[in-house]
Amino acid sequence: MRPEKNSLLLVLPVPFRKNSADELLIEKQACNGIDRWAENFKLVTVACPTIDEKTYHSSNTTSEYLPATTLESFDRVRLVPLPYSYQIKSYLKNYLATRKLLGELISNNKYLSFAIGGLIGDWASLAAIEAIKQKRAYSVWTDRVEHQVAKNSYQDRQGLRRVYRFLKDRLFQSWLMAAAEKYIISRANLGMFHGMDCFSAYHNMCKESHLVHNIHLKESDRISRENLDKKIQHVMQGQALRIVYAGRVAGMKGPFDWIETMNQLQTMGVDFSASWLGDGPLLEEARQRLNIKNLDGKVTFHGHQSQKEKLLSSIRAADIFVFCHKTPESPRCLIEAMLSGTPIAGYKSPYPEDLLKNISHDLLTPKDDTEALAKNIRRLNDNRVELANAMTYCHQISEHYTDKAVFEHRSQLIKKYL
pTM for this one? Predict the structure, then answer.
């Protein structure tokens, strides 16, 4: 069978969900992504692992799901549920049937794009292996250096579990992931790597590598010029510095470094308030550390933020977005901050360096150096003109980072190189 003209197959890790009425639900941001893909292709087939209600509620996820029928492009999208098989026994049980299904989908679609990441249960990687067997051109996409993330996941554990996870993740699973990534990426006809951290790690492996971005914010989500001017006016009046971060309270995000940076600022006598927006496994321990550091009242960990509008409003209201990321990844929160006219400052790595390439790199400091980061923030606090100029830069550059722009960019690459 010849592939249907202008059709795209996506194999993604974000799970579908089946509710008690057997209705298919899709994570809210994934809905937006599917609709944006459908603006660029005649038919889009999306295959994802699928969880039931019991698995959904036991996972403690805070993701918002919508009925598949709410997709703008519902009549031009085929949704294919795959087994949720992140345990070795389940993965082996479903391997042959899933590979056969993926093989049929690959044969029936002209363009192939696989969002790889992980080992057991990563159907995108299996799809790539099947595409290699069929001698089909395919693209890979990833937004973080997965084997590096696995290497650091043990940090969220305690006691003997921490030792076990260190041996399993850092010494064994990370090595296998790196080998699998190299095999799949080196045989891809197109590599699309979100952010400079991923691009730097993978671009030499692939025949055709491109730096891309994965954003779900619209032009209407950008801070208006009027509101930006009001924020700049507030900053120039010398008001207390408003600091924010948005992300999971997990080891790879560096929450304890972030707290220590706030502690350093307090010691330096900087007048500020700080908010961490997000949930995660280290949330309660982080709150305890605030008490130990006498930061209660000045620094707050707010927990889960259910509404995107409320989250963006909090980021827009801040003067600076401070991050302490520990692993090579390309978190969207940095671009979300720039869309909000909120300058980013944090640990140095290729991704934020690329975002700030046309402005002073003095906003970034070496990883793990909380004192240097605090001094950087103090400098911005003392030099409000520099801070205001950084806000203006963020507003100008963010026009390139809307969902419509970044999905159109990736679609053009797929059509050109596949």
Answer: 0.81
